[in-house]
Amino acid sequence: MSERKVLNKYFPPDFDPAAIPRRKQAKDAQHKVRLMTPYAMRCDTCGEYIYKGKKFNARKETVEGETYYSIKIFRFYIKCPRCSAEITFKTDPKNTDYVAEHGAQRNFEPWREERLAGEESKLLKELEEENNPMKALENRTIDSKIEMDVLDALDEIRTRNARNERVDADALLDKLVDQDIVKEKSQEELLEEEDSKLAKAIFHNVDGDSVKRIADDDEPDLKQLLSDSAKSLLLPKFSSNAKNDEEGSLAKRKQKRPGSELGVVVKKRKQASTTSSPIKVESSNLSNTTSTTINIDPNSSNKISNSLGALLGAYGSDSDNDD
Predict the structure, then answer these.
(1) How is the chain split into domains, by residue range?
(2) Is 303 annotated as a binding residue?
(3) Mean pLDDT, to the nearest integer, of 282-298?
(4) Disulfide: which of 72, 80, 253, 306 matches 85 by Cβ 3.0-4.6 Å?
């Protein structure tokens, strides 16, 4: 397989390249080539649009009698992909471009027109400077001014970029976070002011005085919130003139029970000294039990017994009346 990759060929010693006859071709001979369209065009026959870069099998020939500084100009023949009409275009070495010749029109290209207009203005400017030296001086002054402005703008851009490179990213982020916190606080303050204004507008008396709300610390006592009947159940009053229905019903229940008609127990404490000895009176009923202590003098025991008898008699008479 190595003989297939050699570069040197064998030439016999009697080989004479001048003896080989040269092939003669016509000057207008055409060659088949494969190419892509150099610009977008529109077929004149059917109106088909052919975009730039579409591949075609074309024929190439040399244009006779047309050269540009001894540079040959070539012509290409292609066919429309829709109607098979012949389209030709040729090279333009002067403008390094192609020129539409027959069968299709080139699409409008604004950048190409601007370039051509710029070239024309440049030619006119050169002609004016040749005949008028003052105009040439003025044009050079304007060009130098434009160049200085461009350099100043470039220096400004460079200094800005250098300043941006020196900026610390962490410091910048912290600054942004602080700004967000300040904004949130200001928004909260605005909301609080709006709420206070709304409260002042709502809580207003007929006379125009604002109503003050009760402080959270000044809470009322639970006993003050209770009704009179609930207070009587918690703290019953034992009096001779009981007029409440609940006390009457309790007295009826106590009369039916002989062992606890009054529910009063008197305990005497003995003391060695002659001072007044306290007597503790315990009263119990169905709801609760209350105890009272009475300091009495030992010499006045008879008076106390008499007063207790009168009290108990009155209590009994009230219970009889209720029956």
Answers:
(1) 29-106, 117-164
(2) no
(3) 47
(4) 80
